[in-house]
Write a structure and sequence with these properties.
- The complex is a heterodimer of chains A (111) and B (277).
- Chain A is mostly helical and 111 residues long.
- Chain A has a domain of 69 residues.
- Chain A is built from four helices and no strands.
- The two termini of chain A are 22 Å apart.
- Chain B folds into two domains: 118 residues, no CATH class; 135 residues, no CATH class.
- In chain B, strands 1, 2, 3, 4, 5 and 6 form a six-stranded antiparallel β-sheet that branches. Chain B has a four-stranded antiparallel β-sheet with strand order 8-9-7-10.
- In chain B, strand 3 and strand 4 form a beta hairpin.
- The longest helix of chain B has 35 residues.
- Chain B starts with a helix and ends in a 14-residue tail after the last strand.
- The chains are: A mainly alpha (111), B alpha+beta (277).
């Protein structure tokens, strides 16, 4: 399982990876915040504080991406990470099928 | 020319790499045909007949065609496709082989293979008769679709109102909530449409294969989500009706249809015969 980072652009690649990971954490935080809000466990001023903090984080990430021209790289890395996660989950759900499919790739490679 | 080749075969076998026959396709024919020097690397393409079927081949060493040069490989694949198209024009139904299928041996080997697989090949030819392969891909414009959902969903409409009036932080949270709801609705809706379209299209295909929906597509379709990707084996007299149905779907603003064909039925050939190489 590999995530492709272009050797020619190591700095943007690494920065892109870091930003991608922070975005994923940000989304997890937002989901958690939404759950609390919908569960009625927050009053309006708490929601206001939470929303502002998340909004600032969002704007900061957008700013970093624009400043460094890494919007596309971050998108690509996130797609790759999705694929890696998908494969891992697939392997857990159905180890036989995964073995079959990786076997096929080997055969094709040999021909 | 074939007799001369047979005479030289035993000598050739001792000196050079074993010979083989590159397989383009299997046809229905009782008599030989010549396609000229139109094959891969300008090879002379001809037929080897057994009873009423034949293999379209060219003579080559028993080794896969391999090259790191992209242009070379492109030309090979185009030549492969060209011969299959020509054979389809001349003989109607063909069973196409995928690129780089080579049988180790000579004319006799090919004839033996044709005789061993005779009934399987005849059956397959019958299945493919008067049909061709068509690709149907349907794309969804998520933005347009989400607008529609937003208009018709009362909870989402209420959220939109609140977002306008509430303070910034709260509005941000409500926006996230709304986007989540839209995405969930969208996913369900696209799934429903995909199933519905599949059922409609199924009626016009004798055989249908569901393909991966994250295949690469030309730039024109890059921003849309592929919700349907099908290879259809369709009778020639049903293609027009299939086209009409797809045309109706394409008229809707939220959907775009990509309908290509006729192709040689590569997806519907399956596995015939044992190891060829």
């Amino acid at each position: 399982m590999t995530v492709k980072i272009d050797e020619k652009n190591l700095k943007p690649g690494l920065l892109g990876l870091v930003v991608a990971l922070v975005e994923i954490i940000q989304e997890t935080l937002e989901r958690q915040a939404l759950r609390r809000m919908e569960g009625g466990r927050l009053n309006e001023s708490e929601i206001e504080r939470l929303g502002n903090a998340l909004m600032e984080l969002d704007e900061a990430l957008e700013h970093i991406k624009k400043e460094n021209g890494i919007e596309e790289i971050v998108g690509a890395i996130r797609n790759d990470l999705d694929r890696v996660a998908d494969e891992a989950v697939g392997k857990i759900i159905n180890p036989e099928k995964w073995k079959e499919e990786t076997g096929k790739v080997d055969k094709a490679g040999m021909i | 020319m074939e007799e001369q080749e047979s005479a030289n075969v035993s000598e050739a076998k001792q000196e050079v790499a074993p010979e083989g026959r590159y397989l383009y396709c299997v046809i229905i024919s009782s008599s030989n045909a010549d396609f000229g020097d139109m094959g891969i690397d300008d090879s002379n393409v001809y037929t080897i007949i057994y009873k009423d079927i034949g293999a379209v081949v060219h003579k080559c060493p028993a080794k896969a065609y391999d090259s790191k040069n992209e242009q070379t490989v492109k030309e090979w694949i185009l030549a492969h496709q060209y011969i299959i198209d020509e054979a389809t024009k001349k003989f109607g139904t063909v069973i196409p082989f995928s690129f780089d299928t080579i049988i180790k041996g000579d004319e006799e080997k090919v004839k033996r293979w044709l005789s061993e697989e005779y009934s399987a090949l005849k059956d397959k030819l019958e299945t493919l008769k008067d049909k061709a392969e068509y690709t149907v891909q349907i794309f969804c414009d998520k933005t347009v679709m989400m607008e529609k959902i937003g208009k018709n969903n009362p909870s989402i409409k209420k959220l939109k109102e609140d977002i306008k009036t509430k303070p910034k932080g709260v509005a941000y949270m409500l926006r996230q909530k709304m986007e989540g709801m839209l995405k969930d609705e969208l996913r369900l809706l696209m799934d429903d449409y995909a199933k519905d379209f599949y059922n409609q299209i199924r009626n016009y295909a004798d055989d249908i294969k569901v393909e991966q929906r994250n295949k690469p597509v030309p730039d024109k379709w890059k921003d849309k989500q592929m919700i349907v990707n099908l290879s259809c084996l369709t009778r020639k007299d049903k293609v027009e009706q299939l086209g009409k149905i797809l045309g109706e779907i394409n008229k809707k603003k939220e959907f775009s249809v990509r309908f290509t064909g006729p192709w040689a039925p590569f997806s519907f050939v399956g596995e015939i015969g044992g190891s060829k190489k």
